[in-house]
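We read letters as residues; the fold follows as tokens. Both lines appear below.
***
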Amino acid sequence: MRICVFCGSAAGTKPRYAAAAAELGKLLAKRGITLVYGGASVGTMGIIADAALEAGGEVIGVIPTSMTDREIAHQGLTELHVVSTMHERKALMAELSDAFLALPGGAGTLDELFEIWTWYQIGVHSKPIGIANIDGFYDPLIAMVDHMVAEGFIRASYRDFITIETDLEKLVSGYQG
């Protein structure tokens, strides 16, 4: 089992975001789940990768050439794939993964989450998608998505396909059936 985690090249302002990334990395390793992520050594990306590796897990990073310096490519991973573009990064992360999960993050995290969700909606994949709503981080986004459903721009079934959970253990357990 491989889970792709979308998260940030920054750690955010609340210590709980970094703690959640570390907790998730350890949890994945403990469960024998390989982490697939953006390949950086900074922010919550670096935190989750380091935690998974320290707990004995496997970690696969995918990073575009243009980001290897800016995001500081993680050199201690099980595998590091360097690709040409962001599109190739997202496509390879999707190909390598059995499920997807978003931790709190910035525009890149939202881009990855929305693209993988769009791919589900148009039938490119049927892999599970989850959101770790740490300390209510995604509450405004969830309200916006609910508004989009109410206004007829998204089917309720597409919204319901995404699992939203505050408890990481429950979220990961849902992926393992």
Summary: The chain is about 45% helix and 20% strand.
